[in-house]
UniProtKB/TrEMBL annotation:
<feature type="domain" description="Thiamine pyrophosphate enzyme TPP-binding">
    <location>
        <begin position="400"/>
        <end position="545"/>
    </location>
</feature>
<dbReference type="Pfam" id="PF00205">
    <property type="entry name" value="TPP_enzyme_M"/>
</dbReference>
<feature type="domain" description="Thiamine pyrophosphate enzyme N-terminal TPP-binding">
    <location>
        <begin position="6"/>
        <end position="114"/>
    </location>
</feature>
<dbReference type="InterPro" id="IPR012000">
    <property type="entry name" value="Thiamin_PyroP_enz_cen_dom"/>
</dbReference>
<dbReference type="InterPro" id="IPR012001">
    <property type="entry name" value="Thiamin_PyroP_enz_TPP-bd_dom"/>
</dbReference>
<dbReference type="InterPro" id="IPR029061">
    <property type="entry name" value="THDP-binding"/>
</dbReference>
<dbReference type="Pfam" id="PF02776">
    <property type="entry name" value="TPP_enzyme_N"/>
</dbReference>
<dbReference type="InterPro" id="IPR000399">
    <property type="entry name" value="TPP-bd_CS"/>
</dbReference>
<dbReference type="InterPro" id="IPR011766">
    <property type="entry name" value="TPP_enzyme_TPP-bd"/>
</dbReference>
<dbReference type="Pfam" id="PF02775">
    <property type="entry name" value="TPP_enzyme_C"/>
</dbReference>
<keyword id="KW-0786">Thiamine pyrophosphate</keyword>
<protein>
    <submittedName>
        <fullName>Thiamine pyrophosphate-binding protein</fullName>
    </submittedName>
</protein>
<dbReference type="InterPro" id="IPR029035">
    <property type="entry name" value="DHS-like_NAD/FAD-binding_dom"/>
</dbReference>
<dbReference type="InterPro" id="IPR045229">
    <property type="entry name" value="TPP_enz"/>
</dbReference>
<feature type="domain" description="Thiamine pyrophosphate enzyme central">
    <location>
        <begin position="191"/>
        <end position="327"/>
    </location>
</feature>
<comment type="similarity">
    <text>Belongs to the TPP enzyme family.</text>
</comment>
Amino acid sequence: MAAQRGTTKLIEQFQADGLGIMFGNPGTVEQGFLDAADKAEGFRYVLALQETVAAGIADGYARATGGAALLQLHTGVGLGNGIGMLYQSLRGHTPLVVVAGDAGVRYDAMDAQMASDLVAMARPVTKYATRVTDPASVLRVVRRAVKIALTPPCGPVFIDLPMDVLDAVNLEPVLRSSIPSTRTAPAAAAVAEAAALLAGADNPIVLIGDGVAHAGAQDELAAVAERLGARVWGVDSSEVNLPASHPLNQGQTGHMFGEHSASLVERADAVLIVGTYVFPEVFPALETPFRPGARIVHIDLNAYEIAKNFPVDLGLVADPKPTLAALDAALDRLQTAEQQAAARRRLDRARVERAQRQAEFEQRDHEAETLTAFLHALSRETGNDLVVFDEALTSSPEVGAYLPADRPGDYHLTRGGSLGVGIPGAVGAKLARPDRTVVGFTGDGGAMYTYQALWTAARYDIGAKFVVCNNHKYRLLDDNIGQYWRERGIPAHAFPASFDLSHPAIDFSGLAQSLGVEAVRVDKPEQAVKAVEQMLRHPGPFLVDLHV
């Protein structure tokens, strides 16, 4: 058998690790392994028109599969384009294996065109970043990176692959990467201590994040919350960690102002934190938001996040699923009859409140506004049997009301703070789950960050559906500056002109069609039903420009 270059062995290693799809945008310094990828049987390259788009599609694909995704960027310039989206993946713990080429180790001293320190660029937005400099260690480094990406807390990793290193003969064996098991539970004594801290609470709350979904611990979380009669708030929560329709689910704490989160937790006498850090606001509270004497237990596989900002009484570095199961059993043994009765009363009150909110929702005039008419029709036509990728932002509360996030894996919320994830995220999710109806919601501002993703959907006939909630502005900035004015006693006045997107008006449906995607514009509530029918009936990708 002829000796193989590193370019060929690299693709074989990716395939051995189940990374059979590479998302990317090609460049000259990557041409060697991209040529090998094109020849590899069963390997697929999904082309995006810009690296930010490729990174967003890869992130959506990984979130929908629950595994890793492979992303190729073009040296320093392409890595620079993708950094904002990689920050989303870092904050959301998405296991991306990111590779980029460079001209070669032998050119390092020349400071030539496009030369840059890729590892230094990638390090702030990845869990691990490295460069391969030895032709005999290419696959070893890839396996190490794959292991790190998939070991909780998961996250993106980056490998700089110099062209001359990959062009050399490679004699390394292709072996599947070893991923360690983290299905660990704490010692029985630690679980008993946690139960003792929580059992007698009069006003307990639970704060949750995506560590619950990553562990598949939704049922165990619900059981503990019900046993405590504790209201549950999503903190760093972008997946289905507790069904939205569960009576104890209170929604999100919010991601802008620490004062808002503090108002939700300040009365709790016991706090259980699971799979999240506290708190992820842009303007967080600098002093602890918890009341003096509140007993705080934090369960997470990410030791870094436990007591990162505020002290806790007990931190358990353990997998949430077995830990919550053990905690539920310990609480069952420890709670007195009086404590159990109090917890049931709290749960009953939450059920009554949930029923009242549902009755009020059902009595609404669902056809009053274009957005609600569209969502009501979509819910009715699909029976909510769809996967939602939600970057609607200021329209997200309405999206969640009509399309509740109840089934794990069927709802993905934007995370990380930067715009542009809704359209590429839905493309990736549909590619991962071709048998499901996938609808991506975005705003008109967010859409224009990555609208080129529609071209990728058209090129590969990825039949995702897209909804642009078009309010002709960066509405979230309007809301946030209003808060800024109130906090500083500044009289309300006209919003900055930079927040306005109304002129010139963007023809989202025409622009989508120019990229190969069928589209329709909806201006009035009475157009909503027909638009939903068109969108669902169309076999390929389809976009609705929804004026709200």
